[in-house]
């Protein structure tokens, strides 16, 4: 049962951490929503539509962070064959995909009043759309095999190869002439965002991150249990036929 | 009251802003709902399977001794 030692420790640890991350997320969400919708000023050029930033940017960061953590988990699973790594990778995928879709949708809703268009095929938007397809492709690939272990392995390879898209997304606004604006928070030096807008953005980002972590913990628990169910079912089938 | 109307209209961009926030809320709530439901379902299935293995139904007895390594997965 050595194989299960770490997943079991994870089950215990995650049960202890979960209420804290969920509570933190809820608390930050309340404060963040107040700051984003009431406490922060309208932009002098975009007026009120700037408030979409407070959900669009955290979603975008989570979309990329989610994929990056999947790539790391895949590499760990691939090199050290750690069973928990592959399961974590699979647990992150649907959540990361949801935030990528949210990033695209909120960006589109923000683009209409500010750019005058819902969508353009500029490098930033296109590379994020590719990220969404990578997530969906991973989910499809993992479930396409009869043997779950083979599906996870194929998914891990796809994830690692697809990781080249991450720097493309990050630097797309510098490499190409995009309609999307360049980075204004995560850049060298002082963020080019006024504190009155930076604070709600940071609080909302914290709320989104805590939400993401809580959900990944929950979903990883579900994956571990599913794995145990598979093992038990296989043992049962073996026992019945023997 | 006027204040509230002003807040809801968001300078004429209410549809965009509330649309974006509403969509975000729906997706996040759905994520929590589906994940928790999946976890609960797996917990139930696992409990049932373990009960069966313990020989509650008699059916599991037939298998004789299970493979040594898989006897307990606490």
Describe the structure.
The complex is a heterodimer of chains A (242) and B (74). Chain A has 242 residues and is an all-alpha fold. Chain A is 79% helix and 0% strand. Chain A is built from seven helices and no strands. Chain A has helices spanning 2-39, 53-80, 83-115, 123-142, 148-162, 165-175, 195-241. In chain A, helix 1 (2-39) packs antiparallel against helix 7 (195-241) and helix 3 (83-115) crosses helix 5. The two termini of chain A are 22 Å apart. Chain B is an all-alpha fold. Chain B has a domain at 22-52. Chain B has two helices and no strands. The longest helix of chain B is centred in the middle third of the chain and has 40 residues, at 14-53. The model of chain B is unreliable at 58-74 (pLDDT under 50). The interface between A and B is large, with 44 and 39 residues.
Keywords, please?
heterodimer, A: 242 residues, mainly alpha, B: 74 residues, 2 helices, 65% helix
Please state the overall shape of chain A, judged from the principal axes of the Cα atoms: globular
Overall pLDDT confidence of chain B: 78
Low-confidence residue ranges of chain B: 58-74
Reported for the largest beta sheet of chain A, the result is: none
Order of helices and strands of chain B: HH
What is the CA-atom radius of gyration of chain B, in angstroms? 26 Å
List the total number of helices of chain B.
2
The H/E string of chain A reads HHHHHHH
Number of H- or I-type helical stretches of chain A: 7
Question: Into which percentage range does the β-strand content of chain A fall?
Answer: under 5%
Largest sheet of chain B: none
- Distance from N terminus to C terminus of chain B (CA atoms, Å) equals 59 Å
Radius of gyration of chain A: 20 Å
Number of beta strands of chain B = 0
N- to C-terminal distance of chain A: 22 Å
Sheet/helix structural class of chain A: mainly alpha
Strand content bin of chain B:
under 5%
Structural class of chain B: mainly alpha
């Amino acid at each position: 049962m050595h194989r299960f030692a770490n997943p079991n420790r994870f089950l215990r640890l995650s049960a202890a951490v979960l209420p804290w991350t969920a509570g933190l997320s809820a608390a930050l969400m309340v404060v963040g929503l107040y700051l984003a919708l009431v406490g922060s000023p309208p932009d002098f050029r975009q007026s009120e539509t700037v408030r979409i930033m407070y959900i669009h940017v955290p979603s975008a960061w989570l979309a990329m962070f989610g994929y990056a953590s999947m790539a790391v988990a895949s590499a760990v699973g691939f090199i050290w064959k750690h069973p928990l790594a592959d399961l974590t990778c699979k647990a992150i995928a649907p959540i990361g995909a949801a935030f990528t879709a949210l990033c695209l949708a909120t960006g589109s809703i923000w683009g209409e009043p500010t750019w005058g268009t819902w969508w353009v095929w500029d490098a930033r938007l296109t590379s994020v759309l590719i990220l969404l397809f990578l997530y969906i492709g991973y989910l499809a690939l993992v479930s396409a095999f009869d043997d779950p272990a083979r599906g996870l392995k194929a998914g891990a390879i796809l994830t690692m190869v697809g990781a080249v898209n991450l720097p493309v997304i990050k630097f797309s606004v510098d490499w190409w002439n995009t309609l999307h604006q360049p980075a204004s928070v995560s850049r060298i030096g002082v963020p080019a965002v006024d504190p009155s807008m930076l604070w709600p953005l940071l609080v909302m980002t914290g709320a989104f991150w805590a939400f993401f972590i809580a959900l990944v913990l929950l979903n990883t628990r579900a994956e571990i249990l599913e794995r145990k169910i598979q093992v038990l079912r296989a043992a049962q089938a073996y026992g019945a036929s023997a | 009251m006027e204040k509230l109307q002003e807040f809801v209209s968001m300078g004429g961009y209410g549809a965009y802003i509330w649309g974006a926030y509403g969509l975000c809320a729906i997706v996040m709530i759905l994520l929590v709902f589906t994940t928790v439901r999946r976890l609960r379902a797996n917990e139930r299935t696992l409990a049932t399977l373990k009960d069966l293995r313990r020989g509650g139904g008699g059916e599991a007895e037939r298998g004789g001794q299970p493979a040594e390594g898989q006897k307990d997965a606490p």
